[in-house]
Amino acid sequence: MGADNDSDFYARIAHLMGTPQQRHFDHSDEALADVVHSAVRHIPGVDYAGITVVSRRGHDVTTPAATHDHPRTLDALQQQHRQGPCFDAALEHQTFFVDDLTVDSRWPLFRRDALARTPVQAISSYQLFTTRDRVGALNLYADRRGALDQPARDLGFIFASHAAIVWTGLHRSEQFNNHLAGREVIGQATGMIMQREGFDAILATAYLRLIADNRNITLVDAAHTVLDGQYGRNR
């Protein structure tokens, strides 16, 4: 690839990296699906892609985004056997490359079942993010052994970095929206208490906190019990 072609190629990648933030997605899964489908379209040799999310203790493995059933099957096998490149990439904060799954001996149980149930021969797994209770990885798969060469691996790092940014941004947005929704519910419940009990705003808020303390629930959950008519002074 010449210098001009290199410039054009990386300009297209840079444009692609900016695209998901400029679109509107109703759910984080849609944005992550956009990333994995883009990876398959733009990284040579990649046949399938998926994102694996693993609980900190490794008990739960989910696939919030995948281009095909094969990534979901492979994640299910890794949960079953508690081993595999995607599983380890997420939990061990590393990147794992499998050039030829037929001869790779690192995850014997996973390898046996993966070869029996999917056509996948090569895998690249990149650790994406860590939170208090979950970790994630971007996984690229190829049906042909050796298909994920060094240029494909380098592009994989770019897409993994982008997926991590998308994940972080979307979940911060979701947390903010959940916070706003919670405040709205609390405000509605406080208003209902003021109207029903004849309290002012301060007493109504204190009353709502008392409900939460008595039931050992959050203030938002207490507000929902009030709005649902499940709690009152005479109950």
From TrEMBL:
<dbReference type="InterPro" id="IPR029016">
    <property type="entry name" value="GAF-like_dom_sf"/>
</dbReference>
<feature type="domain" description="ANTAR">
    <location>
        <begin position="166"/>
        <end position="227"/>
    </location>
</feature>
<dbReference type="Pfam" id="PF03861">
    <property type="entry name" value="ANTAR"/>
</dbReference>
<dbReference type="InterPro" id="IPR036388">
    <property type="entry name" value="WH-like_DNA-bd_sf"/>
</dbReference>
<dbReference type="GO" id="GO:0003723">
    <property type="term" value="F:RNA binding"/>
</dbReference>
<keyword id="KW-0805">Transcription regulation</keyword>
<dbReference type="InterPro" id="IPR012074">
    <property type="entry name" value="GAF_ANTAR"/>
</dbReference>
<dbReference type="Pfam" id="PF13185">
    <property type="entry name" value="GAF_2"/>
</dbReference>
<keyword id="KW-0804">Transcription</keyword>
<dbReference type="InterPro" id="IPR005561">
    <property type="entry name" value="ANTAR"/>
</dbReference>
<dbReference type="InterPro" id="IPR003018">
    <property type="entry name" value="GAF"/>
</dbReference>
<protein>
    <submittedName>
        <fullName>GAF domain-containing protein</fullName>
    </submittedName>
</protein>
